[in-house]
Amino acid sequence: MEKTVSIAIDGPSGAGKSTLARRLAAQHGWLYVDTGAMYRTVGLQAVRAGADMDSEQAVAALLPGLSLGLRYVDGAQHMFLNGEDVSGLIRTEQISMAASRVSAHPTVRAYLLETQRAFAREHSVVMDGRDIGTVVLPNASVKIFLTAAAEERAQRRYAELTARGERVTYDAVLADVKRRDANDTGRAAAPLRAAADAVTVDTTGLALEDAFCLLSKTVQSRLA
Fold this sequence. Notes:
With 224 residues, this protein is an alpha/beta fold. The protein contains nine helices and eight strands.
């Protein structure tokens, strides 16, 4: 069996992880796994159920009745919640914050951990999230910590949301970015941080193409 390659990409919200990781995977014929979408799907279920997302007990009570599916449609990852394709529904600011809150609970992280590791055992993957290099794939072939200034990440997110027709302000998006950073870095369970052996790639001030070239060169140099 051919040896698998695993690329772990961690970083804060809006750093461009999904866009760049997806492109990197396509470049090499690897499987792209967006772990954040899994947490967003759990967050969507919590919102729909009206659960107290800050209560681990309340969120954990939803998990036994939750059927979470991950399928690839025309090469793109789609998330299914109890048979419903929710790939579009999980990309709102409300669900982004819900994902941040439910992901703080160890029960939720444990629920998704084995699913994530199974993909890496069976395929060469590019996996992005908040704790891929530190917890999910501690022995990943390459670990990247992808980041950018909060103001730039907010501007990117604002442009993305307004392009989809959502009515938001830049100041509100920036506040959400900073709040999510605080949630992700301050939580007790698997907080966002760079793995000791990760390479930091800062995309502040870089156009998308330049950011991808920097990421791709960094990964290639580590695999060499």
